[in-house]
Amino acid sequence: MADTAMSRAEYGAGSMFQRSSDWRWIGTIEAGYTASGARRRLTVSTKGCTGGCAKRCPHVAAIKRKMRDKKVEVDREGHRQVKRTTSVAKWSEMWLEDIQTKVRPSAYETDRAAVRAIVAAIGAVKLADLTPTDVKAVAKRLRAQKKSTSTALRYHGSLIRMLKAASREGYAIPPNVLLADKPTKAVNDRQAVSFEHSIKALEVIAKRPNGSRWALAFLQGLRQAEALGLTWDQVDLDRGALTISWQVKSLRYVDRADPSAGFQMPDGYEARHLVGATHLVRPKSQAGWRVIPLVPWATSALRVWRDLAPPHELVWPGRTRRGLTWPRNPASDRDEWEAIQTEAGIAHPTGRLYAVHEIRHGTATLLMELGVPESVRIAIMGHSSIAVTRGYEFVDIEQSRKALEQVAERLALTPPR
């Protein structure tokens, strides 16, 4: 019997016929269309009887069984695009364009940076020809450039997500590529600012007019973006509470030459424009949106700062330029924290200066040492789970209750006047 042509072949449909030249049975399965729009047809075959098979011939059953098995295979793999000329570089362009409206701006910037490194290492390789060695080549190139293992691990994650997206779109990604080993992450030396160093830092902070910025970092565990995005309408001094519901982020212009075109952001992303590219955006997770109490010291410090601060909706704004007050720059914020450490004569045990986020580690550790229940610690820190909270806790076995009492006394400093 001859194969019947279809104007638009149905996916998974099949047909079979016995070829007169050698009497072999030929079965075809419609497997969708290639990236160029051509029909993709898969073929199976088996031998047949000379002169033609009877209706109940075992050869007929055999070709039907092969067609059935091939259809199961097609269904399992999905509708594949078999255009083998698509390179990693070409697909990365399409992938970035696709995720631009789906992921948070910070995640997009990470993926965008990863794509640059990926394309530099394996951009010319065809998707269908990728091997686990190609995946490892990205991390190898990053090591040669003296990039951190954390960067290599993040970029590896971007690469795997990019290839999984290609697979979902129908490109034939070799399965073993997606199982390639991750780069080994180096030991993280981040830890809590010690109690002794916290005391020294707070002594310096108390002398600064905007010391409340850093007091709240120690006492409330605020993330840097949360502190810089804190607005006065989120501060209830009478009630003694903070509502954490915004963070400061810079968003990328759609077209830098035409700012009126707006900013790149995912669908449904809530953002309040401040000035330039800076915005107030919602926390990454619902857990980050929280209300936390203010300790009396912080309440007093904020009352004093409210009278001294430049008029602005942000509690701790940045510089005024060209008649506009800008949000506090994260880099300038880090510089001030480093200046505080230098003045206080403190540093990380390795000799480097503490990172801003290590203040937050100290808050989590203090809450744990004081025996605060896990559910309360999660609410204060704005974590999504106990596991995340525990990841921030660094226990110092040399701490004693006497030291904690001394710290509590130190935190009851007279606020700046």
Please give a handful of descriptors for the protein shown.
417 residues; alpha+beta; DNA polymerase, domain 1; hpI Integrase, Chain A; 3 domains; 3-stranded antiparallel β-sheet; 11 strands; disordered N terminus
Structural write-up:
The protein has about 425 residues and is α+β, with helices and mostly antiparallel strands. Helix content is about 40%, strand content about 15%. It has three domains: about 15-75; about 90-175, DNA polymerase, domain 1 (Orthogonal Bundle), CATH 1.10.150; about 195-245 and about 285-410, hpI Integrase, Chain A (Orthogonal Bundle). It is built from 14 helices and eleven strands. The strands form four sheets. Strands 1-2-3 form a three-stranded antiparallel sheet, covered by helices on one side. A three-stranded antiparallel sheet has the order 4-5-9, with no helix packed on it. Strands 6-8-7 form a three-stranded antiparallel sheet. Strand 2 (about 25-35) and strand 3 (about 40-45) form a beta hairpin. The radius of gyration is 31 Å and the shape is elongated. The termini are far apart. Mean pLDDT is about 80; it is low at about 1-10 and about 385-410.
